[in-house]
Amino acid sequence: MTSSSFYRWRPHPWHGIDVGPTPPALVHAYIEITPFDHIKYEVDKTTGYLRVDRPHRTSSLPPTLYGFIPRTYCGRRVGALMEKAKGGDEDPLDICVVSERPIDRAEVILNARVVGGIPMLDHGEADDKIVAVLDNDTIWADVNDLFELPEILVERIRHYFTTYKSLPREGSPVSVGEPYGQAHAKRVVESAIADYLEQFEQLITT
Rounded distance, CA 148 to CA 114, Å? Predict the structure, then answer.
């Protein structure tokens, strides 16, 4: 093992981990929450550690692993791909990962094959949810497009994001559109990578 083959300090999960083996098809996913979490965790952008965002406000829990793709950013290019969006939400690109075997811990990195996505507008900003399957998964290994997944699973993902910011007797600030397939999902990932390179060019070159 050479000195360059490991990190001396913990890398920041957004900026210190690469996008993945062969983006936009095969990417890394940093997992923030699991289907077993009743608390919404979110990476702290300054420290890179998980921060408690809020308890889930409804009985709905995420039906898949949920996190983001490192070194992505939802800026003007991502916003331009979504109708009615005034821009991206200025966060890393979210990803939902389907796995046959339950994974019950967060703060893990995994290889995820992009198969599609779900468009979401949050306060008028594009907040796409890329959908992927765990690479080399026993059950989902042959899935190449979101529309090959069970329809009920896709609907559960849509329902979660439709309700996860809702409060009783109050409206939701989000609107969720119709799912899209792998081809458009790859364009979203490529745009988020380009937005990241533009936004954090100085960080990358220093």
Answer: 12
